[in-house]
Write a structure and sequence with these properties.
The complex is a heterodimer.
Chain A: E1 4-9, E2 16-21, E3 24-30, H1 31-35, H2 45-55, E4 64-67, H3 71-84, H4 90-104, H5 107-115, E5 122-124, H6 127-136, E6 143-149, E7 156-164, E8 167-175, H7 180-190, H8 199-205, H9 214-218, E9 221-223, E10 229-231, H10 248-254, H11 267-295, E11 299-303, H12 310-319, E12 324-327, H13 336-348, H14 368-377, E13 383-384, H15 388-400, E14 405-408, E15 422-426, H16 433-442, E16 451-455, H17 459-462, H18 480-483, E17 499-501, H19 507-520, E18 524-529, H20 541-550, E19 555-558, E20 561-563, H21 568-577
Parallel strand pairs in A: 1-4, 4-5, 6-11, 11-12, 14-19, 16-17
Antiparallel strand pairs in A: 1-2, 2-3, 6-7, 7-8, 9-10, 13-20, 14-15, 15-18, 16-18, 19-20
Helix pairs in contact in A: 3-4, 6-13, 7-11, 11-12, 15-19
Chain B: H1 2-43, E1 61-62, H2 70-74
The chains are: A alpha/beta, B mainly alpha.
The structure holds fe (ii) ion.
Fe (ii) ion binds at residues 127, 131, 150, 153, 304-305, 333, 336 of chain A.
């Protein structure tokens, strides 16, 4: 009998679901993509519905449903923290306790009610066990050291462990409130950005500054030689507050109060971003160094939200003995849904490993017929191509002519990055392309870099890297001679958050890059996510069409159709109504 | 006839309940927080959140093996 396992992550941030069929990951998606609510954390009904549709099964056919954390342990942490922080913790206590007692605590009953299944099919995997499993069991490695680093799960915020074949142990941890993720969130809040959303901005801003304030920033955290650390909690508020991450003393220590949202990002804050990033990187390097000595392996796998800090990941490769690295592309909490399912499959059921995550294209796809029906429903003008080669050549030609392209193909990516199936593409050789993209489409801060995609086999000609980087989680240098020739993707410090494109895993995108090389001379395109600032990445052809109509994207390449003309009346309607969410089943 | 009289009354009662529920919850939670929680808070002499910084040594905590058997993963804790 076919064995199905459904992994679920929700109720913190980035709710998601995934489905395993006999140990193979066949579908995974974040709920925000379906209900169009960024970082949606509620129950992932639509993601589950999608996973079941992908497998053409009913929830009745799923033997095991695995939730990504242990609710009692998490509740224990909230309770203990409230008690220890009395009377400052009233705000947290007042909100959390009724919510937990109302249903969150008995998650088995809650899930079984939401899915209309018997409670006996519901299982639980510790949060960092889920993260660890998402990194190790999906990696190509038989043996590895395992590092997880996030804001917080139940109690753990950082764990170290080791995996071999279908076994895994986690033997060291740092517990809440001491957390690298929350330290980085504190820096994000201090710089006036939104926590749990804008950590990318800090990473993008850091190279513009100098790490002048490392001494001051280091007072926030006591770090030992083995990388273990504790935060100096007198500077932080998150331990007793829902609203505030840091307190007044944090600003006093660093020399200026927290930056206000609309205040200019001057040299001081830029240098502070650089200093904070450096301190966090140094801690991560120390941890990795300790792991290299302890677990005696050259291979490291990483998951947890801090694993999305691609600069820190790169430092590990540069400065420690680790030679091989796999970072779960959905390193944040959505990816813990994968880990929960895989932990159950290998550890509880004892099944051997057979799946390797070679790409992150795990979401829904749409047939040419569905795409055409959508376009026709809007009376859109489009050219239909009968073969891929013509479509790809026409797209590459437009790219070479500096057109901004909305590229919507195949299955949607799982994880926070667009990797060539829900992407906005542009010519990286145009020195003005960053400004063009920001003014036409992305409307985001000038300091944020854009990432490149490059043909895997030609990577080392353009970038100083000799391993695969398929998920934009490593930041090598753009080779000196190419930095000026690829200005739109070269960051101020000469680095790029690279994606290597493999013919085997994404042939159509690979073909596009090859065709672009013939026309423009480089097998590199600028690849940014297909969305407008503040919105989730597009999921359906309707979402893509809406984004195309509301922005200055020059052409939409959706399936085998290319659109280059916009009905101006419709454009005004889309803009006026701000149609982001196109009617669909609501997530509850 | 009776239904006509009682239906609006019942609806009103439910609306009142909905209106009062968060207030009663708030009151109960406040009583628990300000009367019972401090008792636990005061009788604790340990440092449950390990807030104190220490000279030398290591902050790594040993992680007890996680029970990943089917029964272990069945548990909510
Ligand atoms: Fe997490």
């Amino acid at each position: 009998m076919t064995e199905y396992i459904l992994g679920i992550a929700c109720y913190y941030h980035d709710a998601a679901a995934c489905l395993l069929k006999d140990g193979e990951l066949i579908a995974a998606a974040e709920e925000e993509r379906f209900n169009r609510k960024k970082h949606y954390s509620g129950f992932p009904h639509l993601s589950i519905k999608y996973c079941l549709e992908e497998a053409d099964i009913d929830i009745k056919d799923v033997q095991y449903i695995v939730y990504y954390e242990k609710p009692f342990i998490k509740f224990n942490r909230i309770l203990e923290t409230s008690i220890a922080q009395w009377p400052k913790s009233f705000g947290v206590f007042r909100r959390a306790i009724p919510m937990w007692l109302k249903g969150r605590l008995d998650m088995r009953k809650h899930i079984s009610k939401e899915l209309k299944i018997e409670p006996s099919r519901v299982y639980f995997s510790e949060h960092h066990l889920s993260h660890s499993a998402s990194a190790f069991f999906l990696s190509p490695f038989k043996e590895a050291a395992i590092l997880t680093e996030d804001g917080v799960g139940e109690w753990a915020t950082t764990t170290l462990g080791h995996g071999k074949d279908n076994k895994m142990i986690i033997d060291r941890e740092i517990q809440f409130p001491h957390s690298l993720g929350l330290l980085y969130s504190a820096l994000t809040a201090y710089l006036g950005f939104r926590v749990n959303d804008a950590e990318w901005k800090v990473m993008g801003l850091a190279p513009y500054g100098e790490p002048k304030y490392v001494d001051r920033f280091s007072k926030l955290v006591d770090v030992k030689d083995d990388g273990s650390f504790r935060l100096n909690m007198k500077y932080f508020s998150y331990i007793h507050s829902h609203k505030y991450t840091i307190n007044r003393k944090f600003g006093e220590l660093l020399g200026r109060p927290m930056r206000k949202k609309d205040e200019e990002i001057d040299e001081f804050y830029t240098d502070m971003a650089s200093s904070g990033q450096k301190v966090v990187e140094d801690i991560i390097v120390k941890i990795a160094d300790f792991m290299h000595k302890t677990y005696k392996t050259d291979t490291l796998v990483i998951a947890g939200g801090v694993g999305l800090n691609s600069v820190a990941n790169w430092r590990i490769l540069e400065k420690t003995g680790f030679k091989n690295i796999f970072i779960q592309p959905a390193a944040g909490d959505s990816g813990a849904a994968l880990g929960a399912a895989f932990a159950f499959y290998h550890l509880a059921l004892g099944k051997p490993r057979k799946y390797e995550m070679k790409h992150a294209l795990l979401g829904p796809s749409y047939t040419d017929k569905q795409i055409k029906e959508t376009l026709d429903s809007y009376d859109a003008k489009y050219t239909e191509y009968k073969n891929d080669k013509e479509l790809i050549d026409a797209t590459a030609k437009m790219l070479a002519e500096d057109k901004v392209i909305g590229w919507f193909q195949g299955r949607m990516e799982f994880g926070p990055r667009a990797l060539g199936n829900r992407s906005i593409l542009a010519n990286p050789q145009n020195p003005k392309m960053k400004e063009i993209l920001n003014s036409k489409v992305k409307f985001r801060e000038k300091f944020r870099p854009f990432a490149p995609s490059v043909l895997k086999e030609k990577t080392s000609k353009y970038f100083d890297i000799d391993i695969d980087a398929p998920y934009m989680l490593l930041i090598p240098q753009v080779r000196k001679e190419w930095q000026k020739k690829l200005p739109a993707i070269t960051h101020v410090d000469g680095t790029a958050r690279l994606q290597t494109v493999d013919k085997e895993t994404n042939p159509k995108y690979h073909a596009l890059l090859s065709s672009f090389e013939k026309k423009a001379g480089v097998p590199v395109v600028l690849n940014t996510s297909f969305n407008v600032r503040g919105e989730p990445i597009v999921c359906t052809p309707e979402d893509a069409y809406s984004c195309y109509m509301r922005t200055g994207i020059d052409a939409l390449v959706v399936g085998n159709c290319i659109l280059t003309e916009k009905n101006q009346e419709q454009v005004e309607n889309f803009k006026e109504l701000n149609i982001v969410y196109i009617k669909r089943d609501e997530g509850r | 006839m009776l239904k006509k009289i009682f239906s609006p009354l019942w609806k009103g009662y439910l609306a009142f309940g909905h209106f009062m529920a968060p207030k009663i919850t708030f009151l109960l939670v406040s009583i628990i927080y300000f009367i019972f929680v401090p008792i636990f808070s005061l009788i604790r002499f340990t440092d449950p959140l390990k807030m104190k910084l220490q000279e030398g040594g290591s902050y790594w905590l040993e992680k007890k093996p996680i029970d990943t058997s089917i029964n272990g993963m069945k548990r909510l804790y």
